[in-house]
Design a protein that fits this description.
six-stranded mixed beta sheet, binds uroporphyrinogen III, binds S-adenosyl-L-homocysteine, 4pyrrol_Methylase_sf, EC 2.1.1.107, lyase
Length: about 280
């Protein structure tokens, strides 16, 4: 395929020859499948000289960077932040001040639960140009990878992306606003507090039988999908032990899930039929 020299290529070429000042590029790496990168993200990664990445960026994607690129891991795990967010913000600015095009690679989309907003503001306040390249967020990537439409004319008129982790631990969304059965709920970072969130949703009017999909490592080769119901969510998590990263999709659209879409599934054919028939 022949691609004309884009304004991006021109900018990067200018940067390599010192004609452009340093900048920060907040780049979404998508949910893991390398083929879900945008063309723009791919171009930036392949030409990167300095790349600062989060934990959920897949190894396959990092492998696309030039062998001599400086790749800095600033990933956090729950309970362990090797580098604080304020230090990451400062690192990006310091690197850009040396005149580098700094590729800040983040899982999914930089502006969906990714602290992209904080990093952008920090760079802008320091007078560093900041460009944003969107990525496929976990919700849309995982939904596509297991055939669950997030909206559907007959089942869901809207969709909500919600963090399963509040600033002080337990999630504290406006539960009342989540009761509409025709709204699909997608919880990011929702495993630790899944029991509290299912109890709250039921207490605020969601049907205890609402189907739930837990998608572990969505879009990756070892993706695993677990299907359960709201009232059974905590028990399912305790039994199946889904690991990070996992996403929760809650709503009637989950009945459209077909095991054939995913690499592996713990859903038995009879359970699948029961959900589809209901
Ligand atoms: O206030 C909010 O709405 C949520 C704030 C938020 C947290 N982490 C707090 C959190 C956000 C969203 C945001 O700031 O916009 C994040 C973002 C986040 N979490 C990222 C994006 C990059 C980053 O900021 O580091 C990532 C992915 C990454 O590559 O590091 C995460 C990962 C994460 N954080 C997971 C995911 C996982 O699958 O392991 C989990 C646990 C999920 C679960 O199922 O329980 C967390 C938990 C989490 N998020 C904690 C906190 C508070 C804090 O960071 O201070 C708990 C951390 C802890 O217990 O130490
Ligand atoms: N910026 C990211 C989200 C970071 S918060 C995005 O737009 O996707 C981290 C949470 O994202 C995880 O706890 C999990 O809920 C979700 N997540 C990210 N990648 C995932 C994947 N491949 N499969 C399932 N969940 C994923």
């Amino acid at each position: 395929m022949t691609v004309a020299l884009s304004s991006l290529d021109k900018l990067l070429r200018g940067a390599m020859h010192g004609a452009e000042p340093g900048a920060v590029w907040l780049v979404g790496a998508g949910p893991g499948d390398v083929d879900l990168l945008t063309v723009k993200a791919l171009r930036l990664i392949e030409q990167a000289q300095v790349l600062v990445y989060d934990r959920l960026v897949s190894a396959e994607i990092l492998a696309l960077a030039p062998a001599d690129a400086l790749c800095i891991d600033v990933g956090k795990t729950p309970g362990f932040h090797g580098m604080k967010q304020s230090q990451i913000n400062q690192l990006l600015v310091d690197l850009a001040r040396t005149g580098q095009q700094v590729i800040r690679l983040k899982g999914g989309d930089p502006f969906i639960f990714g602290r992209g907003g904080e990093e952008m503001s920090w760079a802008q306040q320091a007078g560093i140009p900041c460009h944003v390249v969107p990525g496929i967020t976990a919700a849309t990537g995982c939904a596509a990878a297991c055939g669950i439409p997030l909206t559907h004319r007959a089942m869901a008129q809207s969709v909500r992306f919600i963090t399963g982790h509040g600033r002080d631990g337990k999630p504290q969304p406006d539960w009342q606003s989540l009761q509409d059965p025709r709204q699909t709920l997608v919880f990011y970072m929702g495993l630790t507090w899944c029991e509290a969130l299912s109890q709250q949703l039921i207490a605020h009017g969601r049907d205890a039988q609402t189907p739930v999909a837990i998608i572990e490592r969505g879009t990756r080769r070892d993706q695993r999908v677990m299907i359960t119901r709201l009232a059974e969510l905590a028990r399912c998590v305790a039994e199946q032990q889904p690991q990070s990263p996992s996403l929760l999709i809650i709503g009637d659209v989950v009945t459209l899930y077909r095991p054939a879409y995913s690499a592996t599934s713990t859903l038995t054919p009879s359970a699948s039929n029961a959900l589809i028939d209901s």
